[in-house]
Predict the structure of C2H2-type domain-containing protein.
Amino acid sequence: MLIPCFACESRFHPDEYFRACHDYHRGKDLVAWTCPRCGNQDELRVFPGELGFGYARRGRFDVSDRVRVPGLRRRRQDLRLDISLDEDVWRVSTRTRQLVGAH
Ligand SMILES: [Zn+2]
């Protein structure tokens, strides 16, 4: 099972893909991802069993593309999102620059 970059169409094994995730935005429930191949930055939402890609619009995130990742699980922690698949867990820390009270 491989996960694509929508910019350069490279495909990644889950471990390589999720290690490139960074900056979990708790308010928006989005994870930032930077492609190790082309450097494109994307935002995505982790769902149980799939990843959601789309566009931020008027303060909300509209999912337009979904990539199925069977067995994918997520758990929100205080300052991070834990993404797990089978025996592996990737911890994505919350952005430290988040503005308190901003909407
Ligand atoms: Zn790419």
